[in-house]
Design a protein that fits this description.
Shape: globular
Order of helices and strands: EHEHHEEHHEHEHEHH
Largest sheet: 7 strands, mixed
Number of helices: 9
Helix content: 25-40%
Radius of gyration: 17 Å
Strand order of the largest sheet: 3-4-2-5-1-6-7
């Protein structure tokens, strides 16, 4: 499965969600390849793979064959790191990433490929969404997040994206949410909305500074259900 976690707005937790998915899937024995397309290199920093000689910039600008830029991040997690110069690479076909992943044999070598694109609609994000089997758009319970998610979702529909597209309400807190906003998500996205929002959990953010951080059992179980809903699995079955 190729999974793209994407948003048009910063601060929605897309990188945290991508890290969480990779860690939980790795713990189940599933091999994941993370592809960092963001020039901010956020997910590359999480796994300590920055300023490498070979990055996603070289992967996208080449043909995918004999690529040397796959680095081991953790057990069962490899990464093609991002580049600070990624924003300069715009003259690429929207399906170049999908082509190169297949040419390189990565779609067969890994159980999951997790793509973290930048938070704007450009060549890198288009490559990420056109490659995906499943797209997840995270959004918090604020007016600006809701409107950004709604606009992005409709844009993807207008592009006739074939991927299974899901919306995930992130950082849900009944006490601090904009009143009624979660109901608006339900009304707007219906069956495309994950049934359970991801609750606001302070310790979840620690994963982006320490991917080896151990979540409390109850919290981890709750977050595993989110990964199951995104990947269409149940406790690691049918992956």
């Amino acid at each position: 499965m190729i999974l793209t976690v994407t948003s048009w707005k910063g601060g929605t937790g897309k990188t945290t969600l991508a890290v969480l998915a990779a860690i939980i899937l790795a713990a189940r024995g599933k091999r994941s390849l993370i592809v960092d397309l963001d020039s901010n290199c956020a997910i590359s920093q999480v796994f300590g793979q920055v300023l490498k000689d070979f990055t996603s910039m070289e992967f996208l600008s080449g043909n995918g064959e004999n690529f040397k830029g796959v680095y081991s991040a953790r057990q069962n997690i490899d990464i093609i790191p991002g580049s600070l110069n990624n924003m300069l690479l715009n003259n690429i076909m929207d399906r170049q990433l999908k082509i190169n992943l297949k040419r390189a044999g990565y779609t067969e070598a890994y159980d999951y490929i997790i793509i973290d694109p930048p938070g704007y609609w450009g060549a890198h994000t288009r490559n990420a969404v056109f490659s995906a089997d499943t797209i997840v758009i995270p959004g918090a319970c604020s007016r600006i997040d809701y409107e950004a998610t709604r606009l992005y979702f409709r844009t993807l529909r207008e592009c006739y994206i074939e991927a299974n597209t899901l919306v995930c309400v992130n950082a849900f807190n009944a006490e601090s949410n904009l009143p009624g906003i979660h109901d608006e998500y339900k009304s707007e996205f219906g069956e495309f909305l994950l049934a359970e929002p991801v609750p606001y959990i302070k310790s979840l953010k620690k994963l982006t500074s320490d991917p080896d951080y151990t979540l409390q059992a109850g919290i981890r179980k709750r977050l595993e259900r989110t990964v199951d809903a995104i990947t269409g699995t149940k406790g690691g079955e049918n992956a």
